[in-house]
Amino acid sequence: MSEFWLISAPGDKENLQALERMNTVTSKSNLSYNTKFTIPDFKVGTLDSLVGLSDELGKLDIFAESLIKRMAQSVVEVMEDAKGKVQENLLANGADLTSFVTHFEWDMAKYPAKQPLVSIADTLAKQLAQIETDLKSRTAAYSALKTNLENLEKKSTGNLFTRTLSDIVSKEDFVLDSEYLITLLVIVPKPSYAQWQKTYESLSDMVVPRSTKLIAEDNEGGLFTVTLFRKVIDDFKTKAKENKFTVREFYYDEKEIKREREEMTRLLLDKKQQYGPLLRWLKVNFSEAFIAWIHIKALRVFVESVLRYGLPVNFQAVLLQPHKKSSTKRLREVLNSVFRHLDEVAATSILDASVEIPGLQLSNQDYFPYVYFHIDLGLLD
């Protein structure tokens, strides 16, 4: 499974025994794989600051998860022709996401544990905000380029009624620079080819004999040329329509055709040039954002554990990886049973501290007797 449960319990003898019981039961029942989740000794600060920080970290957690999901989706969109290789580009510090989470170590160089908790949270928030800003600008530029290219490519597809004809026709198909003559393009249904050949010369006066030529076909019909005098264009169009022949409004312009082809070539080159740098940026910054997110989870466990269990700081964090989705209900029952005694501890802590601790209202259906956070690695679901 691609999910983890990050929990903590007080680090006294009774709860360490409870953790041991939990490990034994979950292992025997094949419910989860459990590992110790190490969190540094942070500077606690005041209770008021922790309560405020709890709320800010909750918002930052949601933002970070949303950001890495958007980045994962951007990798999918950029790697449109190699979607099977997306997962191997979604790494954290060069490791797959599961390995990074299960072997998590706090990055002391990037987020010094001796700093105040508020400062660490602020560093993480600024880092993620900058990544989001860069993500928006980089992906917007690439998306605009892609859209322009797709629009041009769409013109080269579709049926003869809608697609561009610049890549079909050639200069030799037209009478050009004539004061009196003009070449039109007519779409003829396939069943009507014979009728066209018999009647096109008589659809109007002044049609040049034997001037028709089939230059392109699709599933429904063919594109024919016909040359006639300019002054009978309207009459020819009317008669052609009556016979279910459609005149395409197209006049050969060599400069315009050349411009279209050059634009397509330029867009393809630009896309190719942007692809590599953008994918590299996404890989590097996805890793940075994901690492920041797991550090936020660690901070939240610390803050909520201090608020829940009180001072001095003494708790043990454990990372559980449920084995099967069908077993999560049973795993939850085991945890609630093993740690049900913490309800009384939590209630006493509230009364002693005389403050409201987030998440401890017994009416809250998401309440658990232990500190609990969910980590979902199904970023592409």
Shape: elongated
Described by strand count, sense and barrel closure, the largest sheet is:
4 strands, antiparallel
* SSE arrangement, N to C: EHEHEEHHEHEEHEHEHHE
Extended strand count: 10
What is the C-alpha radius of gyration, as a whole number of Å? 34 Å
Arrangement of strands in the largest sheet = 2-9-1-10
- H/I helix tally: 9
DSSP helix fraction: 40-55%
Distance between the termini: 12 Å
- Average pLDDT reading: 88
User: Which runs of at least 5 residues are low in confidence (pLDDT < 50)?
Assistant: 346-365
Strand content: 5-15%
Structural class: alpha+beta
Short description:
The protein is of the alpha+beta class. It has helices at residues 13-28, 47-78, 97-102, 117-155, 193-199, 233-242, 254-309, 328-338, 342-353, and strands at residues 3-10, 32-36, 91-92, 95-96, 181-189, 213-217, 221-229, 246-248, 315-322, 371-376.
SSE topology:
Blueprint: E1 3-10, H1 13-28, E2 32-36, H2 47-78, E3 91-92, E4 95-96, H3 97-102, H4 117-155, E5 181-189, H5 193-199, E6 213-217, E7 221-229, H6 233-242, E8 246-248, H7 254-309, E9 315-322, H8 328-338, H9 342-353, E10 371-376
Helix pairs in contact: 1-8, 2-4, 2-7, 4-7
Please give a structural write-up.
- With 381 residues, the chain is of the alpha+beta class.
- Mean pLDDT is 88; it is low at 346-365.
- Helices cover 50% and strands 15% of the residues.
- A hairpin with a 2-residue loop joins β3 and β4.
- It is built from nine helices and ten strands.
- α1 (13-28) packs antiparallel against α8 (328-338) and α2 packs antiparallel against α7.
- It is elongated, with a radius of gyration of 34 Å.
- The protein has a four-stranded antiparallel β-sheet with strand order 2-9-1-10, sandwiched between helices. A four-stranded antiparallel β-sheet has the order 6-7-5-8, with helices on one face.
